[in-house]
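Our preliminary data section would be incomplete without showing what the modeling component actually yields. Below, a chain of 375 amino acids is followed by its predicted structure, encoded as tokens that our downstream tools consume directly.
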Amino acid sequence: MIQDCFNKVYKGDYIIFFILAFFSILLVKGSHKMRTEDFDYFLPEELIAQTPLNNRSSSRLLVLHKKTGEIEHKSFKDIVNYLHKGDALVINDSKVIPARIIGEKEDTHAVIELLLLKNIENDDWECLSKPQKRLHVGTIISFGDGSLKAEVTNILNDGITHVRLIYKGILMEILEHLGTMPLPPYIHEKLDNQERYQTVYAKEYGSAAAPTAGLHFTEELLSEIEKKGIEIIHVTLHVGLGTFRPVVVEDVKEHVMHTESYIIDSVSAKKLNEIKASGGKIFAVGTTSTRVLETNRSRYDEYTPEVNDTNIFIYPGYEFKGIDNLITNFHLPKSTLIMLVSALAGKENIMHAYEEAVKNKYRFFSFGDAMLIID
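Predicted structure:
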């Protein structure tokens, strides 16, 4: 009887029916939002690590198998057991600038704090200023004994100010004397040893924040990894404070990602291509190394030497091309970084892993424990 009914329908009605069905599917898909709220989780404040451990590699390691969702609880030193001969460990060798400097206006002696974010060109810098309302174009701020001064050249929104630095000698040496590390806003304890906010392999000044997944490595652990036949490959991405800016839009896809500069040299590109071709796994240390490799491989068919910028925003649905596995820290709720790891391991797996980490009292964020996301 059903067949008889269909036989009475004109061919044109079939066409109209399928057109309407097709557009209905598109509308449903187009109306679906990936909500920022979906990446929230409960975190007791006491689990936010305020100081680094005495031994970098003594932190804990949560191992998440992305295909099965299986979780293991290990020590960070055990990382060597998950790396195999022929694999690559990709590290970001950017060095944090001691970029938080406190001085006073030359005319009124009002206290001004600057956080240097990005070298625009020559001695022109973009920075965060506080309180910005006390500044105007032409204001001169003096730091320390006057060995460093800053002239305001432009006032922008959200505390962003452009300044021209005035000094004699080598800027980084002056900053090492006058400046302090720009610790994230959730860290309230004083850092006794500023080198603990640098990786042991940091060499290229340029970051406003540390690539914190690398803080767990010691020279001894890196040496043990190399002896096992794992290639340690350097890339550079200068971390900006955009890393810590919350996602404020309701729909994840509407978030505007910050831009950071990166470098892959010819030696690193060649080694990466060889390891990929031979079937080795690419282990990225941190979301910063991940962003470099994914941006580079998305632009070219292979790893390619370049100096460039990236504003890549990785969230669930993204297809990874540059990395296989990821060593990372635990990230802030509703942040672009928790979205990145959710894209790699699946949101459900990540949220379950974070619940387990809270239950087992892992230490969170920059000075906290680590996670390995692996096949």
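Residues 38-96+189-374 form a domain with the QueA-like fold (CATH 3.40.1780.10). The first helix runs from residue 2 to 7. Preliminary results of this kind motivate Aim 1 of the renewal.
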